[in-house]
Amino acid sequence: MTLIETVKDLRAWRKNAGHVIFVPTMGALHEGHTTLVREARTLSGPESKVAASIFVNPLQFGPNEDFDKYPRTLENDLMMCREAGADMVFAPTMKEVYHADRSIKISESSLSTVLCGASRPGHFDGVCTVVAKLFNLVQPDEAVFGKKDYQQLAIIRRLVRDLDMPVKIHGIETVRESDGLAMSSRNRYLSPAERAQAPALRAALIEAREACQSGVTGAKNLTHLIQEYLAAHANLGRVDYIALVDQHSLQPLDIAHSQSLIALAVFFDKARLIDNIELSH
Ligand code: PAF
Predict the structure, then answer these.
(1) Which residue among 172, 200, 217 closes a domain?
(2) Cβ contact 195:271 at 8 Å
């Protein structure tokens, strides 16, 4: 596996790389990320290269978020990428990615106004800007993103569509701990008591999906059911949002339809957890 730290070396690598499948990350890798790399490896034929990036993007952190505290575990990340089958990891410095006087950003004005976007202003513009830059740098043919960050995935699909980027986007199922908790680099911030309650997020979403399958399709009823479940099983958390939305536009729905999604976010003391479930009523 090749480690590349500069744009110059990346350009040289890209010239001879052929078909490239790309997994962008911010490091602090866990099983969820290595699954993305392994999926990329499976998607790619023997001739293709799997490229990952590790870059903690300051643009997508709000002023009161955890940019400085975000875990940086490069040595371990590189080992995990190698084991999962990556051919190349691009791990640039800040200076290599952002000019001090940069003045262009990419802004998304619809899908990013709801769900996590409502409480994280500017976050998805930061994601769009860095993903567009990484796509320009790595020039992948395909890229892989997790469905845990469903809103991010939907916005990146929109970015690629609206800016005519020749990159095929793949959404990969969320990887979970054995008790159902979605893997996240932020799970490490949970206290033992919060960690014990955190699987309730997934359990509540499953309850809602089952209710939907048996005919409870109204947004009010479904969100109420989740609210009640969390109040009973995750009282250390504070709900940020629970929403029934369309899987593509992310706009709120009154009634579930065949391509709906329930997404939620819950604040614990030092971590805000998100999860979601697709409904195909
Ligand atoms: O999902 C992430 O880790 C980040 O948002 C991404 C896509 C790597 C952009 O910084």
Answers:
(1) 172
(2) no
